[in-house]
TrEMBL record:
<protein>
    <recommendedName>
        <fullName>DUF679 domain-containing protein</fullName>
    </recommendedName>
</protein>
<feature type="region of interest" description="Disordered">
    <location>
        <begin position="1"/>
        <end position="42"/>
    </location>
</feature>
<feature type="compositionally biased region" description="Polar residues">
    <location>
        <begin position="1"/>
        <end position="19"/>
    </location>
</feature>
<dbReference type="InterPro" id="IPR007770">
    <property type="entry name" value="DMP"/>
</dbReference>
<dbReference type="GO" id="GO:0005737">
    <property type="term" value="C:cytoplasm"/>
</dbReference>
<dbReference type="GO" id="GO:0016020">
    <property type="term" value="C:membrane"/>
</dbReference>
<feature type="transmembrane region" description="Helical">
    <location>
        <begin position="144"/>
        <end position="162"/>
    </location>
</feature>
<keyword id="KW-0812">Transmembrane</keyword>
<keyword id="KW-0472">Membrane</keyword>
<dbReference type="GO" id="GO:0010256">
    <property type="term" value="P:endomembrane system organization"/>
</dbReference>
<feature type="transmembrane region" description="Helical">
    <location>
        <begin position="82"/>
        <end position="100"/>
    </location>
</feature>
<keyword id="KW-1133">Transmembrane helix</keyword>
<comment type="similarity">
    <text>Belongs to the plant DMP1 protein family.</text>
</comment>
<dbReference type="Pfam" id="PF05078">
    <property type="entry name" value="DUF679"/>
</dbReference>
<feature type="transmembrane region" description="Helical">
    <location>
        <begin position="48"/>
        <end position="70"/>
    </location>
</feature>
<feature type="transmembrane region" description="Helical">
    <location>
        <begin position="182"/>
        <end position="201"/>
    </location>
</feature>
């Protein structure tokens, strides 16, 4: 009886390695299939998230909230198409101008914002017009890299707009096959190129709509 009971207990145990081996072989195949089928979607979402980080949050939020209203959820007529064009132009200008804004920490511990000029920075929300209590503002003057960031921000905003289904449906309600491929490829190419250029020319300003971090290594 002891030998038969031991055999009955051993039989299920000996069959488990085969089952687990078959299961382990099926899991990698399923993972390979998933990674192949969802790779394009994952790259698109990752690239869109990275592009969004290069834009001022206020402009991006305004675009997200207003574009469905202006485009009537992608069903545009002539009037709404004109209004959508004006909206996108204003938001692009906002991205361009935001690249020249910066912030400074005064002696009172508060952070104030200003606009970079050729001579320094004009702080427009500081209570003292003489600028007492502010650090040297001449080091915040406009540089060539600021113009590069401004152009890249506009390009990034255009890439994000071309990835929005409402904006694309408004201007291209029934795109041809070649146009559709261009609308799928160009925003991703612009995003990759702008991302590389932002790595080569890193942003040192903490302007309006951008996160404020430590001051070390800003200038």
């Amino acid at each position: 009886m002891s030998s038969s009971s031991s055999l009955t207990q051993r039989n299920p145990i000996t069959s488990q390695p085969n089952d687990s081996q078959e299961h382990s072989e099926s899991v990698p195949q399923l993972r390979r299939q998933r990674s192949t089928s969802q790779r394009a979607m994952s790259q698109t979402l990752t690239s869109a998230a990275n592009l969004a980080n290069l834009l001022p949050t206020g402009t991006l939020l305004a675009f997200t909230l207003l574009i469905p209203v202006f485009t009537s959820n992608g069903s545009c007529d002539h009037a709404t198409r004109v209004l959508t064009t004006v909206l996108l132009t204003l938001l692009a200008i906002s991205c361009f101008l935001s690249s020249f804004t910066d912030s400074v920490k005064a002696e009172d511990g508060n952070v104030y914002y200003g606009f970079a000029t050729r001579k320094g920075m004009w702080v427009f929300d500081y209570p003292d017009p003489n600028g007492l209590g502010l650090p040297d503002l001449s080091k915040y003057r406009i540089r060539i890299v600021d113009w590069i960031h401004a152009v890249l921000s506009v390009l990034v905003f255009g890439a994000v707009a071309l990835r929005d289904k409402n904006a694309v449906s408004c201007f291209y309600p029934a795109p041809e096959q070649e146009t559709k491929k261009v609308l799928d490829i160009v925003p991703m190419g612009v995003g990759v190129l702008c991302g590389l250029l932002f790595l080569v020319f890193p942003a040192r300003r903490h302007g309006i709509g951008y996160p404020v971090t430590g001051d070390g290594g800003r200038r």
